[in-house]
Amino acid sequence: MKVWLFMRVGYPKRIAGSYLLAGKDYDRLLGKEIYDEVVEFLRGVEGYGFDGIFFPEHHSRAANGLSPSPNIFVAMTAVLTKKMKIGLMGNCLPLHHPVRLGEELALLDNLTNGRLVVGMTRGGDFWAFQIPSAESRERFEEGWDIIQKGWQAEEPFEYHGKYWNLDYVAFLPRPLQQPIPETWIPSISAESIEWAAKNRIHLAASWSPTDQIQESFAYYRKYAKENCGWQPGPEHCIVSRDVYVGATNAKAREEAEKDLLVGPAEEFGGSPAKYGRNVADKYFSERATDYKKGEHVGVMEIKNWSFELLQREGITIVGDPDYVTEQLLHQCRTLGTNKIMMRPVFGRLRLGQVMKSLNLMAKEVLPNLSKESIEFSAGTTAARA
User: Fold this and answer.
1) Contact 181, 175 (CB under 8 A)
2) What are the φ/ψ torsions at residue 81 (nearest 5 degrees)?
3) Which of 62, 160, 239, 244 is the right S-S partner for 256, CB 3.0 to 4.6 Å?
4) Percent of the chain residues past pLDDT 90, beyond the cut
5) Is the confidence at residue 376, as pLDDT, over 50?
6) Given this model, what pLDDT does residue 25 score?
7) Under a CB-based contact definition with an 8 Å cutoff, are residues 78 and 112 in contact?
8) Tens digit of pLDDT for each residue in 294-331?
9) Between 105 and 19, where is the model more confident?
10) Rounded to the nearest 5°, which phi and psi values hold at 253?
């Protein structure tokens, strides 16, 4: 079983109810302190025993906007580590020129000695780049076509699509990993799940109850088997959760609850910019979640949930080492995955405030999880020591 870190980098002194942070409200010294915490942590991150670490891309949002270029974090981590996987979760592909991004990712794969995991997202802060969210799917798919072909093509090629008209494409360098680096996409929409199955891209999910993520993974497996001629295994599905480990269940709740509850309310939506991920703005289609039995529950729907409800639905895993171990294994068994991506920093917490949790995770949770393998066969899951 693999456990990955998701390194959200947020700004804690944001204005209540404000989605964006004005420049006048940004403390440069505090920002530098936050980055220094991340760099110092990365110096010793391999000692914790995690299998990999991911960095997100966000723009201008106070809650997690201190990571506008995750590729720079990847480059730094490549210097400070030797063995662990380093990933992106991910580059917001519709916001970028695919040639520049594809070549940069290939460079990173070389700098990491083939340890790069590429996460590509369709969602993003579209308003920051004046890109309509309705264009995101076509932009994403065109961009990915160019990137994966640029990584593999033996000769220069032309590409003429709706958004990109390129007369001459020839990538340098090429990725060290062949034919391409392992690639993930986080999604819940039927169209993106189908695209992932067709392209044999790993599927990641978060911010939804466990039973709903189970539906997404089941649709991915079914579509891949029936329409694409292959069967995804445990390694092809990844679930992300907010995780906090305390000395006792009560102590963990005391230390984490406030920031867990404030997270969804502050990280998405709000004025003046809208997060913009719904049917009305054409980010989602009418059929996007038709494969689910009930109404989709995602980040926009879990606002104002209680701590008990977040825990019960599996969106958060907060407790002592035994509880966290049990719940992580329960989710992997239920979902048929052998990959967990944990977010240790949420709400207004800083990395320095969750070091006790990370140390307990390293000493009392990860050693037990490393003994487990998750098998998947014919729609059932089982854990094996």
Assistant:
1) yes
2) -130, 165
3) 244
4) 75
5) no
6) 87
7) yes
8) 998 887 788 789 999 999 999 999 999 999 999 999 99
9) 105
10) -65, -45
Q: Report the Cα 215 to chain-centroid distance in Å.
A: 18
Residue 95's contacts (CB-CB under 8 Å, 6 or more residues apart) are 124, 125, 126, 128, 129, 131
Torsion of CA 216, 220, 225, 226, to 10 degrees: 80
Averaged over 22-34, what is the pLDDT? 93
Q: Delineate the domains of the chain, giving CATH numbers in brackets.
A: 2-384 (3.20.20.30)
- Cα torsion through 327, 238, 139, 95, rounded to 10: 60
Q: Cis (ω within 30 of 0) for the bond into 234?
A: no
| pLDDT band, residue 22 (cuts 50/70/90) | confident
Separation CA 268–CA 265 (nearest Å): 7
Q: Long-range pairs for 294-300 at CB < 8 Å and ≥24 separation?
A: 296/188, 296/208, 296/212, 297/208, 297/209, 297/212, 298/188, 298/207, 298/208, 299/207, 299/264, 299/267, 299/268, 300/268, 300/269, 300/275
Distance CA 368, CA 89 (A): 26
The tokens of 78 are what?
């490549």
